[in-house]
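hey can u run this one w/ inosinic acid bound, need the structure tokens asap thx
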Amino acid sequence: MEKIEVLFSEEKINERVNELANSLYKKYHDEEVVFICTLKGAVFFACDLLKKYQGDARIEFLRVSSYKGTKSTGKIELNLSISKENIQNHNVIILEDIVDTGNTLLFLNNYITEMKPKTLEICTLLDKKCKREVAIDPDYVGFEVDDLFVIGYGLDYDQKYRNLPYIGVLKKDL
Ligand code: IMP
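ok here u go:
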């Protein structure tokens, strides 16, 4: 395996995910929430967050793809969809691994908004705010990151490294 520099340790991620789960519960505690996990990147984040979330929750999955290697192909494809009845009139929270240019999130936001949720918010583990190309911002952010290609805890480089328990940067990318 190539050399990896740790950016956020397992303990730090755990602590922050706990804080996010508590903030969300504070807002929604007496109402059910449909959490949408975006595959594959947000799967570790969604599982950990949902285990810590104390309110009524459902989970749905969406699969979108736009990246090859470390570059976005620019074309967003929806590979797995959700039926409208699971969204309409529900409180919905999109769980993202990372927001970069914002194109994927804008696409997802429009897709879900068309199904008329009662409320819609976005929670991302990582935010590369400095790379944003479109006007969309998440409501909840785990950590802000600089313009680096990060891996681990669900995030991949050509499908590798998703199983790392921490978030890091490949040394050659530093
Ligand atoms: P956006 O459409 O440019 O905001 O890209 C969002 C998607 O690109 C994320 O959901 C990730 O799948 C992928 N992505 C963006 N930056 C990184 C990174 O640093 N590491 C791994 N995947 C990334």
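The beta strands are 4-8, 33-39, 57-68, 71-80, 91-99, 119-127, 140-144, 150-151, 167-170. anyway lmk if its weird
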